[in-house]
User: Fold this.
Amino acid sequence: MLSLIENNYVEPVDETRLLYGAVDGMVRTLDPHSTFMDPRSYAALKQETEGEYGGVGLELAIRGDEVVVVAPIDDTPASRAGFQPGIG
Assistant:
């Protein structure tokens, strides 16, 4: 199919752009959360998301209408503050 397009399209085509477009279309049909990232976009995302992220250190869950502590994570501000499982 690629050679058919390359040989018969009215203007010259960028093979890489066509391939990335085809893969992007296939991935988008999987589910609403999947996307294809070309190498440049992936490198930019990776650079933006590298590093450490902080928080209070709690694993939370919803029980009924309340948010409750499932567990504090060891050696975090939440564990040092004495958070206990089941506290809403």
User: Anything to note?
Assistant: The chain is about 40% helix and 15% strand. The first strand starts at residue 58 and ends at 63.
